[in-house]
């Protein structure tokens, strides 16, 4: 077909579509900005209409236990041996070399593979048992210890990734290679949002005091991958402008902004009718969302009306914007406003050296606020349908990286076993799941892979992880790739 014939057909299609109701572009825009969202009936199945952006799923695959997720990601790899996995044998055999019968030739990072020895080292901090489950929790986490009966502590997490970039990417996107959609993007794509004035997926970052200049993060962790850009995470910052490029430039008023967007929408719709590029629809929807967020974001970010007892719950850092505690408080406010997936990243857990001092500071950053978030949601009647997740990308070794002294040591990356906890949202409370050997090196009971964790998380939201897919480059992709099973023992 020559270019003139092709152009003629395009014009004919455009003329036809423009005369059919409001045209395909307007119809598609209407679905993107859609006025239907998910509401659960007594069986957990979605039937009613409301306001918000519609997801691709017309109904849930099964009754949902959770409506939203707050993911407290501890970036850098918290040491399970200092926090949750109590191993007195490591103290008894301190300084002895890690037995080869335990290591079994497993892969090490380049940071310790060249060491002449691998001296075992236990935690310098005390542990006590807490709650009905008798969970061992470190003295570094006094506030977390008080909510032990609300927590499901999983001690048998494992991953194949041994370095930060692939390990964090694996947890957040289901692949060690960049380019896939993040968890929040999948949920925005599948379930849409409950509030048309806020994005379905928001991101909050904080930098810890344990290693303030440690492992950085990158925006592709909350990217949309091959999904439409409408589904990417929106970062909220601790600054005068919480969301970049949201405010109007000087001299442009609200009415002027509205007129500009109307003209821009008309031009983009014309472009879409000609090219049929779905990203144009996403662009229109993003412009409209930004317009609505100009009033909704200042409202949700304004915490001055919070009572004093709330600040006391979350701790003194809650008064300082950009801290982990302040972000936990904002997470609760975003959850109240119907944001479906709220991602917090707290950096600073990558403690290859000076671990005793660094982890004490890092634990203090997060302990009180994490526990406060659980209890704050519970007192508001929101914990039952809000899933809270706490954990990093891998654990730490049971041997010292570098020189072991009487007062100091470090730990390298360890993907073979580590600990995470979850609360609320249909998770069984007050249990400890899985176990590791006496050396804290290998899993001995109920292993939980990254894809198992992801499958279970989606299950709690009413989604079959094998059925939420997107066809791209001839293949149907999903968050759990080709693996993963729901860990039913974790379900309430």
Features of the shown structure:
alpha/beta; 15% strand; 492 residues; disordered N terminus; nine-stranded mixed sheet; two-stranded antiparallel sheet
- Please estimate the helix content: 25-40%
> How many helical elements?
14
Proportion of strand residues:
5-15%
What is the approximate shape?
globular
As a whole number of angstroms, the C-alpha radius of gyration is 24 Å
Distance between the termini: 61 Å
Low-confidence spans = 1-50
Oligomer: single chain
Detailed description of the structure:
The protein is of the alpha/beta class and 492 residues long. The chain has 14 helices and 17 strands. Strands 1, 4, 5, 6, 7, 8, 11, 12 and 15 form a nine-stranded mixed β-sheet that branches. A two-stranded antiparallel sheet has the order 2-3. It has a two-stranded antiparallel sheet with strand order 9-10. The longest helix has 25 residues. The chain is globular. The relative contact order is 0.20.
Give me the secondary-structure topology.
Elements (H helix, E strand, L loop, with lengths): L2 H17 L3 H10 L35 E7 L5 H4 L4 H5 L7 H4 L23 E4 L4 E4 L3 H5 L4 E8 L5 H10 L9 H9 L9 E7 L26 E3 L17 H22 L2 H24 L6 H7 L9 H13 L4 E7 L7 H25 L6 E6 L3 E2 L16 E2 L3 E6 L7 E3 L1 E2 L6 E3 L2 E2 H11 L9 E3 L2 E3 L15
Parallel strand pairs: 1-7, 1-8, 4-12, 4-15, 5-6, 5-7
Antiparallel strand pairs: 2-3, 4-11, 8-11, 9-10, 13-14, 16-17
Write a compact overview of the structure shown.
The protein is 34% helix and 15% strand.
């Amino acid at each position: 077909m020559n270019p003139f014939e092709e152009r003629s057909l395009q014009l004919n299609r455009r003329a036809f579509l423009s005369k059919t109701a409001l045209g395909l572009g307007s119809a598609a825009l209407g679905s993107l900005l859609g006025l239907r969202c998910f509401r659960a009936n007594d069986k957990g199945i979605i039937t009613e209409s409301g306001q918000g952006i519609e997801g691709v799923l017309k109904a849930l695959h099964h009754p949902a236990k959770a409506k939203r997720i707050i993911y407290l990601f501890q970036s850098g790899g918290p040491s399970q041996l200092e926090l949750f996995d109590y191993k007195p044998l490591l103290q008894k055999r301190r300084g002895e070399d890690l037995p080869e019968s335990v290591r079994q030739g497993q892969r090490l990072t380049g940071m310790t593979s060249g060491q002449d020895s691998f001296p075992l080292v236990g935690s310098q901090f005390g542990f006590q048992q807490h709650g009905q489950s008798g969970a061992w929790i470190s003295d570094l986490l006094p506030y977390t210890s008080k909510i032990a009966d609300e927590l499901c502590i999983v001690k048998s997490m494992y991953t194949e990734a041994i370095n930060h970039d692939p390990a964090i990417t694996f947890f957040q996107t289901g692949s060690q290679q960049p380019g896939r959609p993040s968890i929040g993007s999948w949920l925005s794509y599948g379930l849409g949002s409950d509030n048309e004035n806020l994005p379905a997926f928001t991101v909050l970052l904080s930098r810890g005091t344990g290693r303030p200049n440690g492992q950085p993060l990158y925006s592709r962790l909350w990217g949309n991958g091959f999904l439409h850009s409408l589904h990417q995470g929106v970062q909220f910052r601790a600054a005068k402008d919480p969301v970049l490029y949201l405010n109007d430039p000087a001299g442009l008023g609200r009415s002027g902004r509205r007129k500009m967007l109307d003209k821009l929408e008309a031009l983009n719709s014309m472009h879409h009718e000609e090219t049929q590029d779905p990203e144009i629809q996403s662009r229109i929807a993003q412009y409209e969302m930004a317009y609505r967020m100009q009033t909704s974001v200042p409202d949700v970010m304004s915490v001055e009306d919070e009572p004093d007892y709330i600040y006391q719950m979350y701790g003194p850092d809650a008064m300082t914007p950009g801290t982990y505690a302040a972000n936990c408080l904002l997470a609760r406010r975003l959850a109240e406003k119907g944001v479906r997936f709220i991602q917090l990243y707290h950096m600073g857990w990558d403690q290859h050296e000076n671990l005793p001092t660094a982890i004490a500071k890092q634990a203090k950053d997060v302990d009180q606020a994490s526990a406060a978030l659980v209890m704050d949601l519970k007192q508001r009647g929101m914990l039952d349908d809000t899933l809270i997740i706490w954990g990093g990308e891998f654990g730490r070794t049971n041997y010292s990286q570098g020189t072991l002294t009487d007062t100091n040591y470090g730990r390298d990356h360890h993907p073979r076993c580590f600990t995470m906890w979850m609360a609320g949202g249909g998770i069984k409370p007050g249990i400890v799941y899985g176990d590791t050997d006496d050396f804290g090196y290998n899993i001995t009971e109920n292993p939980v892979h990254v894809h198992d964790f992801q499958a279970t998380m989606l299950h709690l939201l009413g989604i079959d992880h094998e059925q939420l897919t997107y066809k791209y480059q001839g293949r149907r992709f999903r968050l759990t790739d080709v693996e993963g099973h729901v860990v039913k023992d974790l379900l309430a």
